[in-house]
Amino acid sequence: MSSKFAILFLAGITALCAQDAPLDSSVKINLPADSPLTLISTDLGESHVSQRGSAVVLDLDVALTLHNSSPNRVRGVTLLVAAQEATPGGKASVSVPSLDVAPNQNFPVRINLRLLRPAQMGGGPLVQVNLDGVLFQDYSFYGPNRLDSRRTMTAWEMQAQRDRKYFKSILAARGIEGLKQAMLESLNRQAERPRLDVQVSRGRAVASSAVADHTARFAFLRFPDEPVEPVEGWAEIAGNEARNPRIDVRNLSSRQVRSVEIDWIVSDRQGKRYMAGSVPASGPEFNLKAGSTSRVLQDTALRFSHLSKDGGAPLSVTGMTGFVGQVEFADGKVWIPNRESLANAQLLGILEPSPEEQRLLDMYRKKGPKALADELNKF
Amino acid sequence: MMHPNPSTLALYAGQDLSWFARRRTERHLVRCSECSGEVQAFAAAHRDLVGLNELPALSWNRLSGEMKANIRLGVAAGECVRGAPTAGVLGWLGIMSATRTMAACAGLMALVAAGLFLERPRPATVPAIVPSVAGENAVLRATAGGIELNQGGQTLSLLHVRSADVTYLAGAQGSMRAGYVDSDTGNVTINNLYVQ
Predict the structure, then answer these.
(1) Residue A335 is part of which domain span?
(2) Which chain B residues are within 8 Å of A243, Cβ to Cβ?
(3) Cβ of B196 and A89 within 8 Å?
(4) For residues A291 and A228, what is the distance between their CA atoms, to the nearest angstrom?
(5) A220 & A258 share domain
(6) Is A293 within the bounds of a domain?
(7) pTM of the predicted structure, to 2 decimals
(8) Which residues of chain B have pLDDT under 70?
């Protein structure tokens, strides 16, 4: 009952006190002077600041129009969205991969953000938007790369090329009907993909949570062409929570590796497999020379529940599987598993689709197979 | 489209609606991003309101009891010292003289002031939402309308208001990703939240 009264009290306060205010200088867009992108316009749409009790709520609906002033085609952009004053340990980014923006063309980027913070905090812009990186068609990169967006966008672009190549090969071999069939299969996979509600915790709760029930070992899926192999790994399990994953990896290639990302699958009592997340390792402390072994570790806790609007039941983790999802070499080149390997390991029905596959599926749904075929033939 | 009123959305956020009303509200939320956003705001604020329970509890019953007791004591004391009824209209009505009335009121006000001083309500200058403390636990989660970072009662959310088909991926380094196709632009948009 107390929660009911608290909510009703809040509703009343909201109705009485909520007063929208203009945004003024709440948002600041910063692009470097030498940026290959220039800001053409900023439309704040229905963005507004409102007072709710002792808190300020900023609803930001920003439509940016950017201009490609470089001589290269833009394949992806990442914007760093900082609200440090409100969440000192947190930051956000908005990326737009799978672009194909020619020189001197404009393109839109949308940012929808909500910030809830105390009313009595100081002035200044609530949100600052900075350019973190731009990826071009030739894989060259511009930007401060604070969020490691070079690696991320390069991997997305490689996935885009991989998936376009796959669908183009179907189009070439089986025509529009074959492409339609492949799209329907992909749509079915997405609809049937088991999904989990995953909550990520870092900080005090990770260290002070209940004692782990046991330590579970990873089983690993292997790909024939992987440059890095997972050797062994484990994580602490406490009910539906998996903590502090640690995975030893060995560099099988002749090149130095800058970062590795291990994809993480968990199984429930019925043996159903779910994509849990990824365990990345990068930075100066992660140094994987040719033939050497290193450890991927993260001090974090992932809590799994069945997906439900009302808060799903906790999922008891009974098994864990890992595989190498991404490797970045010291020269900036990136390895990803090919589509055949993913299909052979029966991972296509578990993994989220690549951004490009999402875009192609959306195009198929909205415009049909002919428009999709035209789009594929552009590349 | 008819929207549920704010109280219904607030009760839904607090999981206090009846089964039928909940189903009806859910059906509406599926197709109304505006109300979904409201529900998220209520849910976030509700979590923050839990902090209000940590305010020093006011003993209203005790305060009320003390005030009543003091008033009764004052009235009894007045009865003890009351002399013969005074002449005049007030005396005829059996009511105290103006001087005595003023004295009683002053005494009553002093009692109330003393009571309030001793058990004064703490002004709500410590809100449910306070600036984060370093080391405070941070939680990333996916919500109905986006992904959310909650830290020290403050929230930062990235919303996907123009798509219903969203993929999520958690990163063990402390990140949460939501990917969708923006129906306005046709571009894939990937929102990321990170906690350090």
Answers:
(1) 196-349
(2) none
(3) yes
(4) 9
(5) yes
(6) yes
(7) 0.71
(8) 1, 46-101, 103-105, 107, 111-136
